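Fill in residues.
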């Protein structure tokens, strides 16, 4: 049987990680992997997480299953965090949420819900998008298309082309949007663009499918959630997949959720039954530990305040390192203008350099990034920023 399997091409990011691991140079720098790193190059455990975890371990009396839908405190808390507890969609019972094994688990459940609802529909992905969006959704069986998103020449959203693409979408199609901190470009919609896009989706009866993996890391919780909240306000249906990997630092705990906004409470109840049924058939029960931590933080005011302060520290560091990167490139007389990096959000950006230049950075300067040109700016700090920027200038 197994001899019939076909070879699988290596994951690009995992391949770069392996090269980095095998590099014995003490000054090597990793700008490829998609995790947050602090000034010391560590992906830290947040203090709020440590406190919540210790309290939960002290009080925990069983390791029995929780439920197919996951941790109920987590589910209600994450709903309130994303939509705002006073949002009409919450108050009217239009939102159905289940806990999932990470954001990827949420994407899987959402994909199967879409297929169960309408097998003929298309899902449109931004060009570019998170590299795993396409294989994950394709493996589930969805029909996928692309819409233009990023203009590589002027380093900004190609909003006019995006709107033109939406005009050509069919009723019932879904458009996958990044809620904030677009991965890989770092280029986000303005509030005005969210509104214009939302009204066009309403006119075309196209359903937003929003991946919210970086809530809080762009402009803060409320501003980062603006697009989701606005869409839920004006549209009858919406799918939101969220992750707690980045904003809670719970990468290995696999904490995520899928939240579906329906037209009314009756359909929301029907939706909840269906996404729970899908979860039962795919992984049965989600892991509780990370979700319990998040639920405890979000329902304890002191821990909630501490967590928000820690998220602000992460956000401030990302914004300050962007500003410092731009400053250093200018001071060192870079032949290209890199000011666009200062206006982007989150961890990622496209430097606008080609594959040969990226290979030179790796082989000559021991600086690693994926060959698409995406760079994780969280890998830059005050200690290595001079070497990073000067090395980039040398390959331009």
């Amino acid at each position: 049987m197994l001899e019939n399997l076909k070879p699988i091409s290596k994951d690009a990011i995992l391949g770069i990680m392996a090269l980095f691991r095998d590099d014995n140079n003490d000054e090597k720098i990793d700008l490829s992997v998609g995790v947050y790193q602090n000034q010391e190059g560590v992906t830290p455990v947040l203090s709020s997480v440590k406190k919540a975890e210790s309290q939960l371990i002290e009080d925990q009396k069983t390791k029995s299953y929780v439920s197919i839908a996951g941790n109920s405190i987590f589910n209600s808390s994450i709903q309130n965090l994303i939509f705002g507890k006073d949002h009409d969609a919450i108050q009217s019972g239009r939102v159905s949420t289940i806990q999932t094994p990470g954001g990827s688990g949420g994407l899987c459940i959402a994909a199967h819900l879409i297929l169960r609802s309408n097998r003929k529909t298309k899902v449109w992905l931004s060009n570019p998008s998170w590299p795993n969006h396409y294989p994950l959704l394709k493996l589930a069986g969805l029909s996928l298309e692309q819409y233009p998103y990023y203009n590589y020449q002027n380093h900004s959203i190609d909003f006019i082309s995006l709107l033109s693409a939406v005009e050509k979408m069919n009723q019932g199609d879904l458009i996958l949007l990044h809620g904030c901190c677009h991965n890989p470009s770092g280029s986000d919609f303005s509030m005005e663009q969210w509104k214009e896009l939302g009204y066009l989706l309403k006119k075309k009866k196209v359903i937003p499918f929003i991946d919210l993996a970086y809530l809080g890391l762009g402009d803060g919780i409320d501003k980062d959630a603006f697009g989701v909240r606005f869409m839920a306000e004006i549209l009858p249906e919406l799918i939101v997949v969220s992750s707690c990997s980045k904003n809670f630092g719970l990468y290995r705990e696999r904490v995520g959720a899928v939240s579906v906004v329906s037209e009314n409470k009756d359909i929301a109840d029907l939706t909840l039954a269906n996404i729970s049924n899908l979860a039962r058939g795919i992984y049965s029960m989600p892991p509780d530990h990370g979700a319990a931590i998040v639920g405890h933080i979000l329902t304890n005011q002191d821990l909630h305040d501490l967590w928000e302060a820690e998220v602000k520290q992460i956000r401030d560091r990302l914004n300050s390192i962007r500003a410092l990167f731009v400053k250093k490139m200018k001071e060192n007389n870079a032949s290209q203008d890199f000011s666009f990096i200062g206006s982007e959000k989150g961890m990622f950006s496209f430097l606008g350099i080609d594959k040969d230049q990226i290979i030179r950075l790796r082989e000559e300067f021991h600086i690693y990034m994926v060959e698409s040109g995406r760079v994780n700016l969280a890998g830059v700090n005050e200690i290595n920023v001079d070497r990073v920027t000067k090395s980039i200038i040398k390959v331009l």
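The radius of gyration is 21 Å.
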